[in-house]
Amino acid sequence: MQQLFDSRVSEVEAVMRKTAAVLSEMTNYVSVVLGPAMSNTKLKQLQIIPLSTTQAVAILVTDSGHVENRTFDIPLNMSLSDLEKFVNILNEQLADSPIKQWEALMSNEIERLLRQHVDHYEKIHQDLSAAFKPKVNEQIFYNGMLNLLAQPEFKDVEKIRQMLEWLEDKKEVYSLLNAMNSKGLTVKIGEENRFELFDDISMITATYAIDGDTVGSIGLIGPTRMQYERAIQIITQMADGLSTSLTRLYRHDA
Fold first, then answer.
1. Among 109, 133, 175, 190, which residue has the least CB neighbours within 10 Å?
2. How many Cα neighbours within 13 Å face the side chain of 2?
3. Helix extents (H) in 28-156
């Protein structure tokens, strides 16, 4: 079973890496691909598989095909029967709900059901919520970092160092691209990026979707003199292709 989930994750990562590589190769700019954010997806299924009487593995699958698994301790005072009831209630009540709203959606009705049918549910719910809390810097894939060296704007060693440091700060990059997730195609030229480091740099981003739901972004970073029409055409085609590939992948494995 674990091999099945690992295979899904590997396929998604391979698509992301390939997208970053092709985008960079076609433009000679730096490409950035923000993987499907777990926090932007909805719960498809939660499974808990007991490994022993005291330990289990929880597997969470989202509508984007994102798979997470965590091992946790089963509370000493919780039976396997109660554990199964707990999972069934959450799947029935929280299916198709945004992961980031999990805690908020634990409404009075859900709590009433848990209280009525499951003993000692509080501890297991707390543990699962903490275990699957969305990460701030989810998957980010880069390609073409060395392309910066070929640009006249980066003949200054100090400037190239600062840019590479910025790209390595995945939290910063993730925040920037994630903020554009609802904006479709975005073009920011020079000072429009609001970073002094980007005064002579442009960034083009485009969102991609799975079954029509936006889940991530891809981006290009290059000089302000970049060929915008060509770059926009390429990144738009790549975003559309990525949406098609991921939708097909998740539908096939559904």
1. 109
2. 7
3. 80-94, 108-117, 121-131
Neighbours of 254 (CB within 10 A): 10
Residues facing 208 on adjacent strands? 216
- Answer for the pair 64, 15: CB distance below 8 angstroms, yes or no: no
Share of the chain above pLDDT 70, in %: 81
Distance separating alpha carbons of residues 57 and 113, to the nearest angstrom = 23
Burial class (CB in 10 A: 0-12, 13-18, 19+), 110: middle
* Residue range 100-129, pLDDT digits in tens: 677 677 666 788 888 888 887 887 777 776
Q: What is the largest CA-CA distance in the chain?
A: 68
Same domain for 164 and 68, yes or no, is: no
pTM for the structure as a whole: 0.66
| CATH label of the domain that carries residue 197 | 3.30.450.40
At 10, which amino acid appears?
S
Q: Which domain covers residue 31, as residue numbers?
A: 2-37+136-253
Question: Which token pair is 86?
Answer: 């707990």
Instruction: Give 13's Cβ-side CA count (13 Å radius).
Output: 9
Other C-beta atoms closer than 10 Å to the C-beta of 145 total: 16
Q: What residue type is 108 in one-letter code?
A: N
- As a whole number of angstroms, the distance between CA 59 and CA 198 comes to 41
pLDDT at 10: 64
Instruction: Enter the tokens of residue 6.
Output: 């690992």
